[in-house]
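Look over this record before class:
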Amino acid sequence: MGKNKHRVLVVDDEPDIVEILTYNLEKEGFDVKAASDGKKALEIAKKFQPEMILLDIMMPIMDGVETCRQLREMPEVNTAFIIFLTARAEEYSEVAAFDVGADDYITKPIKPRALMSRIHAHFRREKKKTKKESEIIKIGKFTIDKSSYTLLVDNEKVTLPKKEFELLYFLAETPNKVYGRDELLANIWGSDVYVLARTVDVHIRRVREKIGSEYIKTVKGVGYKFEWQE
């Protein structure tokens, strides 16, 4: 079962929300599993290897932010698309979510039809990306393989969460070209996903921490570039 279906993991401690989301997802043809807390979600994710995770923030045992942080460290789900579902609309909660690797952020109450539309849009966009971006970029000590989401630095594998990898890949495609935050948001997150401009800054910082700060430069008042000199 689910061999040719997209796998989605629903994580929420409210049974009614889990039931509604599971029903709508299965109705749309997704292979669905659910967990009521973060610890259980990690156990299921390791075996189920979901392509998308709908994750509540306020949960017992382990909250969504910590769960997301640990999910991003698991090779089995490193590239999964993570959408936070939460009743908290404060900006600091949203920033915290993106800081640990979230891809999208939706406030409750959830509108199932709108959520399904967003999920389908994501998978369509991923399908187009896979067809279009299958080349390997080799630049200096970096080998960046988009088809397998693999980054090698001096032939050593470096693990990046999905959006961090896509951001690096996008910048490295056109070395020394400067991109503004809005351009990066549109190309990496898509126009149908609402995220703060600060999300770009957070992801840039995290990429720098892993590959070195000398490669991605800030052009004040303009944006960011991958700097490379032959």
Summary: The helical segments are 15-27, 38-48, 64-71, 91-99, 112-132, 162-173, 181-189, 198-211. The longest strand covers residues 81-86. The two ends are 51 Å apart (CA to CA).
